[in-house]
Amino acid sequence: MILLSINIRGLGGIGKKKEIRDLVIREKVDVLLIQETKMEQVDNCLCRMVWGTDDFEWIAQAANGAFGGILIIWNSRVFRKLSSFEGTGFLGVFGMWGDYNIPCYFVNVYSSCDLAQKRCLWEILSDLVTSKKGNWCIAGDFNAIRNSQERKGDTSVRRELREFNDFIETTGLVDLPMIGRKFTWYQPNGQSMSRLDRFLFSSEWMRNWTDLKQWGLMRSVSDHCPVMVKNEACNWGPKPFKLYNVWLQNPSFREMVESQWNNSDIRGWGGYVVKEKLKLLKNCVKEWTRAQEQGVDKQIEEAKAEIAKLDCQGETQHLTEAECLRRRDMMICL
């Protein structure tokens, strides 16, 4: 099981869709929870661009103008939707997971910054979790922290901090430690940072998936880091070879395949020849994709790495004005 949550701060740009799609495909994500789409309408075509393959289903909550917007996309081969529900600041789906038909609730949260609205959200979610026992996963941008170590900058939120902890403890939800990042949101000027994004799981969920790990990933196209949860006990063996349809649109790919196939001098019985040719072709495809990823993609990765370096540096010390401007300029370029 692999779950991914991200506050994208607007899903309209092509670059943002590509960034999420690449992450979903690379990490083999099963459920994707996106906050702040800022889109009043979501359709199947948009979700296909974000998910990258055809084996998906989705539900969405429309944005209110340029505010909000929540989207959940999942792998239709592993999760079967039975119903959905929503309210102010959250969107949920209930269904059956896997071959054993484990009943699961997924709730995607995008909380308001207003404390009164947060209280209302926490009360509704608490009622849902306590009234419907089962496997609950509640994730997203809670716009709240649990202790002063989860924020750098303004920490004058003691009452809110206490009430958020009360919500988690009353519902019996489990907040997994985060690996990789201390904070998940970074102010553009680098002066304030907070852990606003997280996954919360019911005790029933933790009994079914006992090796869950929560990771804060490198951010790029948003001021929030993606947060991913993996059940690391599963070992699915060697990775299968994948062919992406976009490769077929590149004339050089077809030329490379035809040249490699026709020039491979393999002798033996038919099945052996095909097997060996495919092995050689697989290596050629890997080299071809590496060559294609040079240029713009390399620059993007270098920029993302530098942003991550500055983010980590800012967690322990103040960035200079030049470093803040540099990070802002790189974010704009991405």
Summarize the structure.
This protein has 334 residues and is an alpha+beta fold.
Largest sheet: 7 strands, mixed
Q: What's the tally of helices?
A: 9
The rounded Rg comes to 22 Å
- Helix content range of the residues, please? 25-40%
What oligomeric assembly is this protein in?
single chain
Would you count the extended β strands for me? 16
Polypeptide structure, described:
The structure is a single chain. By secondary structure, the chain is an alpha+beta fold. It has a seven-stranded mixed sheet with strand order 3-4-2-1-16-15-11, with helices on one face. The chain has helices at 14-27, 44-51, 115-131, 158-171, 203-208, 251-263, 270-292, 296-316, 321-333; strands at residues 2-7, 31-35, 56-61, 70-75, 79-87, 90-97, 102-110, 135-141, 151-152, 174-175, 178-179, 185-186, 193-194, 197-201, 212-216, 227-231. The longest helix is centred in the C-terminal third of the chain and has 23 residues, at 270-292. The chain has nine helices and 16 strands. The mean pLDDT is 87.
Question: Which keywords apply here?
Answer:
334 residues; alpha+beta; six-stranded mixed β-sheet; seven-stranded mixed β-sheet
Blueprint of the fold:
Blueprint (H helix, E strand, L loop, with lengths): L1 E6 L6 H14 L3 E5 L8 H8 L4 E6 L8 E6 L3 E9 L2 E8 L4 E9 L4 H17 L3 E7 L9 E2 L5 H14 L2 E2 L2 E2 L5 E2 L6 E2 L2 E5 L1 H6 L3 E5 L10 E5 L19 H13 L6 H23 L3 H21 L4 H13 L1
Parallel strand pairs: 1-2, 7-8, 11-15
Antiparallel strand pairs: 1-16, 2-4, 3-4, 5-6, 6-7, 8-14, 9-13, 10-14, 12-13, 15-16
